[in-house]
Amino acid sequence: MKCPARLMTMLPVILLMTASLESEMVSLVQVDNKPSDKIDIIPIDDAHRSRVPPSLADLAGLPAGSFILANRTATSITAVVVRWTYTDLKGNLQQSRINCDAYVFAPLEPIVNPNDVSLITPHGCVRQDVFPRLTAGGTIGSPLHQSTQTHPPADPHATVHLYVDSVVFEDGRIWGPDKLDYTSEINDRYAAVRKFVSEVTVAKDAGESMPSLLSRIRGDVQGKTDKPSSRRAYYAGLLQRSPNPEGTLQQLKAQTSPPPFRHIGEL
After folding, report:
1. What DSSP designation does 205 have?
2. CB neighbours of 61 closer than 8 A, spacing ≥ 6?
3. Which tens digit of pLDDT belongs to each residue from 65-103?
4. What would the pLDDT profile of 18-59 be if each residue is shown by its tens digit?
5. How many helices (H) and strands (E) does the chain have?
6. Short-list 83, 80, 81, CA closest to 30
7. Per-domain residue ranges for the chain?
8. Could you give the C-alpha distances from 242 to 140, 204, 237, 239, in angstroms and in order?
9. Is the CB of residue 41 less than 8 Å from the CB of residue 32?
10. How far is it, in rounded angstroms, from Cα 183 to Cα 156?
């Protein structure tokens, strides 16, 4: 289930929201994709208010460009890549991007269930089963909150352009222009995880302690800037920071293998 292109994963969140959607000026959102029978993109703005699910009707404070992604198929959606272009309060043109990616953690939890909808904002993705709790109050640090440090606020009088680059289904089909080729990132990351898990397992079986081998790996890649080294350092650091390194290693080991990806219409 992050704006420089940074990975965001859908996590269930509960927000403390009290104001009404009607009380806030919402930027008009223009969808730059062609219509499809596979998905539906429903902007959350005044022009589409009647199509917003009742459980979100009183939700206020959503970042400009937020939308509902409807899955019109019987197959789960496991990744979504979205790009926004908008004008900020100073009149400057800004871009942000999010990758909602269910392949990061195990077990795999869909971004959008079959024949269902999810809420997507520049800061996160939330499935419909969480919608009733969004206005109930509670959790801090939600990806639904606008961050002025990473995303200058949009001018509410200017149109936000929304562009879904790709929607990836659990069976491997890819909908959308896919100009950013995000499925290659999914495959490369999975291969790096498998290689890292194997390296750690072999070292442990040979008698090397977890703290020692993780420090050794970080030392091996120090100063290297290539992607394989960066990924190796990242996962070593992930285990070093974990309060349960063995459990985290098992989580990495249990990651779902990506399916053979192909664009819709390809055999």
Report:
1. H
2. 17, 19, 24, 144, 145, 146
3. 999 999 999 999 999 999 999 999 999 999 999 999 999
4. 223 333 556 789 999 999 999 999 998 888 888 888 777 666
5. 5, 11
6. 83
7. 7-178, 183-253
8. 21, 17, 8, 5
9. no
10. 34
Q: Of all helices (H) and strands (E), which one includes residue 233?
A: helix 227-241
Strand 124-127 with 117-121, pairing:
antiparallel
7-8 and 93-101 strand pairing: parallel
Provide φ and ψ at 71, rounded to 5°: -95, 115
Asked if 62 contacts 143 with a C-beta cutoff of 8 angstroms, the reply is no
Let me know: does 67 contact 29? Beta carbons within 8 Å.
yes
Longest dimension (CA), the chain: 64
Q: In which element (H, E) is residue 78 found?
A: strand 77-87
pTM beyond 0.90: no
d(CA 143, CA 8): 9
Give pLDDT tens digits for 206-262.
999 999 999 999 999 999 999 999 999 999 999 999 999 999 999 999 999 999 999
| Spatial CB neighbours of 135, under 8 Å, sequence gap ≥ 6 | 15, 17, 55, 58, 59
3-state SS, residue 213 = helix
Residue type, position 137, single letter: G
